[in-house]
Amino acid sequence: CCVERLVDLCMEEVRLSPLRQISVKSSLSGRSTPRGSPRVHSSGRTPPRREGRGGGGAVQWFRSSRLVYWLLLITLWTYLGFYVQSRWAHDNENKVEFLRFGGKLRKDVVVHVDVDKSKGMGSVANETSDALVSVTPGKDDAGVNKKRTDVSLSKIDDVASRRSLSSRRKTRKASRTSRSKHKVSKAVESKALEDEQDPQLPMTNATYANLLGPFGSLEDKVLEWSPHRRSGTCDRKSDFKRLVWSRRFVLLFHELSMTGAPISMMELASELLSCGATVSAVVLSRRGGLMQELTRRRVKVVEDKGELSFKTAMKADLIIAGSAVCTSWIDQYMNHHPAGGSQIAWWIMENRREYFDRAKPVLDRVKMLIFLSESQSKQWLTWCEEEHIRLRSQPVIVPLSVNDELAFVAGIPSSLNTPTLSPEKMREKRQTLRESVRTELGLTDADMLVMSLSSINPGKGQLLLLESVSLALAEREQGAQRNHKGTVRKEKVNPSRKHRLRGSSRQMQSTSLTLDNAAGRQKQELKLLLGSVGSKSNKVEYVKEMLSFLSSNGNLSKSIIWTPATTRVASLYSAADVYVTNSQGVGETFGRVTIEAMAYGLTVVGTDAGGTKEIVEHNVTGLLHPMGRLGNKDLAHNLLFLLRNQDARRQMGIEGRKKVEKMYMKQHMYKRFVDVLVKCMRP
């Protein structure tokens, strides 16, 4: 109605404008012709205007005409209407603020907030929810018509709340509904998924007795650097950069846990982005805590793992699957796109028969298989021969590497070094970080910290490690008692004969030094740090079995320190002295944590099988022991040997660091990846 009224006024203005030009304005001078208007002569002709006044007449006409003002007003009014409608349809997060004027909520609006009763509104809204608003007509208690605004704080993983949200939006137009749902889904994908422990095993000291860390904030404070400050790490002159520049890649994650395979795929995505490629991530299971890290690294996560992921993959130059668990998606994709197998390079990071049995239906349909170690490659090829599976091409071995961030903190030259943060400067800072973290852990310089970071399950052998540490502590205590008895005998003999022996004072001094050394050795403690508390990959029953074993060995519990699952592990490596990888079965596939520990100069103690046997050289870069409970005694002896021989421990750490710098840095891994790209991608 307002617009129609404005149009009528404009038409009237146009109709009356000629009459205004000849209107008469009275004045004191008696002239009947208005100033600035043309004079009418008796002959009916209008004399020619002076050229100097032509522009002024146009300006005066513009000022006197209301038509232009009405047109401008209509334009602004239309623009404002479209703007308000667009903001209301698309900006779901600020609809409550949209109803406010001057910081106060309008009185004609009733806001109804549905909040999970188990949590406060602030914590839910700030951490794990999105505000979704719907406006419906309603009445207040007095019967006055008002608008009712429902604000639902829906959890990310709460399926029921999403269904209720969609039901409240059914009354809206189809276009608004589709747009708002698309925006909500994108916001949900960008949220970090909390990596919570099983409800039966809360992450508290009441459960684990001594739970410390993580030390990310301390690490940032001491190093005066944070991973958030990292810039592009691509080697601009490398063949890898030349091959991936402007190409499209799809990376397939089987989950987002803080374990080797997902972390390795995330770092590959970061390197591809840094080198100018376009990367999309398809995630089959969103459990774990890496979603926030993917968002920080600007890795685009495809919204689903079905039709949309297939369309994205069809446009890619190469699809890299990061686990044998990806079999189902690969099978569905090739059924949807029969020629899709030529796009897939399958980076298999498992080494157990159960994973082979799951993957064997599609092994001969993908372009290429990628393995981590020689032992893994031989094992899978043997199984393929047994099952009469003929692969399309020869597998390629691409071992993992130490990423730039860990190498940077370890003092190894990397792409993150700057003139002010040189490798020498970072070694000094790492020593300061070591002292700070050990102080937080309650350790002295003489104590030996043994560390094992991995998901807690039978395949990693943490329970066997606890049994071995218990044996080592018992054997050490027995040795200390024997030494103490021998010292007491010397004390009883020497005083009785000191008046007969010359130089008795020197013998007394020797005896006192022996007692002091014995006392000093008793002060040296063996501590074990076990990581990944709260990881979704942990087996709850196995964790309970470990806790039960500790409760039955009270003294052992005092030597155990637990730490939560985290990607900030540089501080833990800096504080440790020995790293243990006690993988069982066929051994570790490769052992990413093994090379990371060696990069920090730690002696590695591992099982004599799998990839660990390829990386660790016995008595040179570490010590090896048999698998199973038969190896517990050897593992205990190896720990005691390193505890008593600091020089040997330090030398093994130096040799291990040299090997990592020579074979397992980032440039070595991506140099091998070039072979995969050349064979799999179209020129």
Automatic annotation (TrEMBL):
Keyword annotations: Glycosyltransferase, Membrane, Transferase, Transmembrane, Transmembrane helix
Specify the Glycosyl transferase family domain's residue ranges. 544-658
Pfam families under this entry? Glyco_trans_4_5, Glycos_transf_1
Chain ranges passing through the membrane: 67-84
Keyword set includes Membrane: yes
Per the record, which residues fall in region Disordered? 27-57, 160-201, 477-512
Compositionally biased region (Basic residues) = 165-185
| Name of this protein | Glycosyl transferase family 1 domain-containing protein
